[in-house]
Every structure is written in structure tokens, then in C-alpha cells.
Design a protein that fits this description.
By secondary structure, the protein is mainly β. About 0% of the residues lie in helices and about 60% in strands.
Length: about 325
């Protein structure tokens, strides 16, 4: 029986939605991936950032995990990889793992510090309901660049993380988790913004893509209250942020972002019903994605126009964009 027809333990469950074995996906594409993404940061100050990913790649027949972030002012990143070897589902890769303790309520993430550059033993506990974004698609001619579903959820983190033999405590940090599945050819998406704003009474989240000239391709997101209420969908989003250098002055990203130290500006989230929330943000460029992609993750302090304060992650990344990445060199055809 060929690889695409192999049965796995998941095929014992009553969970199929296609007349295919559970491990088969809709498109046998090299950039099809299903992934978890967890990020934790302090509530009140800009400090360390701890990130864990676990992703499965059906065509490539392997799973990987990134452990990355910034600790004590220094970037850190590690990679674990394993072949499927008959198990494309269990989210354990080398020394890293994800355990769903209670779906949508409690998740444990871990990375063995003896095997991973960034070790961790953290528990995510939900502080909002999850929000499922609608499916989004982007093409370059006949080629699919992006076609995925996505969910995100705000939570708190507790536990420890370890770098170079030093262990740090995490108590009631804020953060986010994502779960996405579909085709994602990262290097050919002109721009995407992933802004996750943690406020005392809930979180604002958005997933936004643009073409190189600034034309909008996709926007979805929500306000999710921390009182257990249903998320309120986002109907519009506006961004006015800029790269800054170490002195806080505006700076061009250039080819590889060498002069960038942080991010400043505003973002406006317009919710179903017409309520608009604008946040002023300022922070540090904590997890560059160079050399694989332009831009990366920025940890920022935010103040909403109604006085609420919090912390956030502003991800600004892509391949080429008239505002954020006008000078980068792109290989391959981009969507237009």
C-alpha cells in the first residue's frame, strides 16, 4: 500500500470527513502544513518572549518543532525534526511536545533543555473562547500561495523555561496560541500582519494579508472578552506602524532589516456593530525571521484610545511590500 493510503491510529476514530485515510489531505502540496504556535510574554513590561511550534508536513512526510524567542536580551532558536515513520499525528518531535490536556481550555507545551536550545515546561490556560477565522486563499497565476484555515485563542502561561543552564520562572504571563492547516508558501506572500493585543478584559486579534502594492487580500479577526463571552468578529482593520532604529527614529527595513530595532505606530480594529478600537504601540524587534523571510515578531506595549493598557505581539512579515519591505529581493513569482 502506497504512503498516501497508509492507515494510522487516528483511522480508528469516528472523525473522517473525506473518503480517505485520516493522514491524507486535500492537496498533495509541498507547502501543506498543519501547525501549532504558542507564544508567551510578560503582562506589564517588555521582557523575554518564549515561542514553541509543532508542524506536520504530509507531502514531506516529516514533523518539526521550533523553540525560539528572546531571553535576557539575546535571540535564541532551536529546531527538532522527525520522520513520520508511521505516525504523522502525535505532536512529539525530538525533545519538544504538545499535550492537549483539555481541548480549548488547557494545553501543556514542553521542550527538553538537554536537547533543545530553548527548554520549557509551560501550561497554557484559556482566558477567552477560541476564534475560528474563515478560510483564506491567495494565488500567483495558477499557483496556490496560501489556502488555509486558522484559529487563535488568548490565554495565560505558567511554568519555566531554560536557556544555557539557567531556568526562569513564568507566572501568569499573557500570550496566544494558534492552530492552522492548509497551504502556506511563506516566502511568496507579499505581506501578512498578525497582531495579537492582550488587554485586561480580553484580546484583539487580526490576520491580514496584502499584495506588494498595498491592496488588501484578506482580513479576519475578533475581540474576545475574558469573561467567557462569545468573540465579536472584526469587519475592518487599519495599520499605521513603522520600523525604528535603536534611538527610536524611523528607519527603512532595507534588504535584511539590519538597522531595525523596533516598531512604533497605531492599529485600528473595527468590530461588528461599528465599534472601533485604536491602539498606540511601541516596542522591540524580538524575533527576526531572517534569512528565511523578511520582518518578524515585535513585542510591544499598547495603550487603547479608551485608556486600557496591555502588551502585544505585532508580527510584520512577508517578502515584498511598498511600505514595509520595498527594497527586498524576491525569488519566484509573487501574487499581483
Amino acid at each position: 500500500m502506497e504512503a498516501r493510503g497508509r492507515l494510522t491510529a487516528m483511522d480508528e476514530l469516528l472523525g473522517h470527513q473525506l473518503p480517505e485515510p485520516f493522514s491524507n489531505v486535500a492537496a498533495h502540496h509541498e507547502h501543506w502544513r498543519e501547525s501549532y504556535f504558542f507564544i508567551a510574554h510578560p503582562r506589564d513590561v517588555l521582557g523575554d518572549v518564549v515561542i514553541l511550534t509543532v508542524a506536520t508536513y504530509p507531502q514531506r512526510q516529516h514533523m518539526d518543532s521550533l523553540q525560539m524567542g528572546r531571553v535576557a536580551g539575546q535571540p535564541v532558536i532551536g529546531l527538532q525534526v522527525r520522520p513520520f515513520d508511521g505516525d504523522p499525528h502525535t505532536p512529539t518531535v525530538g525533545g519538544a511536545s504538545v499535550e492537549i490536556v483539555v481541548p480549548y481550555e488547557e494545553i501543556r507545551i514542553s521542550a527538553d533543555p538537554a536537547r533543545c536550545a530553548l527548554g520549557m515546561d509551560l501550561t497554557f490556560r484559556a482566558r477567552t473562547k477560541p476564534y475560528g477565522l474563515r478560510r483564506g486563499t491567495m494565488r500567483a497565476g495558477d499557483e496556490v500561495i496560501w489556502d488555509q484555515c486558522h484559529m487563535f485563542q488568548s490565554g495565560t502561561y505558567d511554568g519555566t523555561y531554560t536557556v544555557a543552564g539557567t531556568t526562569y520562572e513564568v507566572h501568569d504571563w499573557w500570550g496566544q496560541r494558534d492552530h492552522s492547516w492548509g497551504i502556506r508558501d511563506h516566502g511568496r506572500c507579499p505581506l501578512w500582519l498578525w497582531f495579537q493585543v492582550q488587554l485586561p478584559d480580553g484580546f484583539l486579534g487580526v490576520w491580514h494579508w496584502e499584495l506588494a502594492n498595498g491592496a488588501r487580500v484578506y482580513t479576519d479577526g475578533c475581540w474576545a472578552p475574558a469573561d467567557g463571552g462569545d468573540p465579536i468578529p472584526l469587519i475592518d482593520f487599519r495599520h499605521d506602524v513603522r520600523w525604528v532604529d535603536a534611538a527610536g527614529a524611523p528607519v527603512a527595513y532595507g534588504t535584511n532589516g539590519d538597522a531595525v530595532a523596533g516598531l512604533q505606530g497605531t492599529a485600528t480594529f473595527v468590530l461588528e456593530g461599528g465599534r472601533a478600537v485604536t491602539v498606540e504601540a511601541e516596542g522591540t524587534f524580538d524575533r527576526p525571521y531572517e534569512p528565511f523571510q523578511r520582518g518578524g515578531l515585535n513585542q510591544v506595549r499598547v495603550q487603547a484610545d479608551d485608556g486600557r493598557e496591555g502588551t502585544a505581539i505585532f508580527e510584520v512579515t512577508g517578502s515584498r511590500h511598498h511600505r514595509y519591505f520595498p527594497d527586498t529581493v524576491v525569488t519566484g513569482v509573487l501574487p499581483d
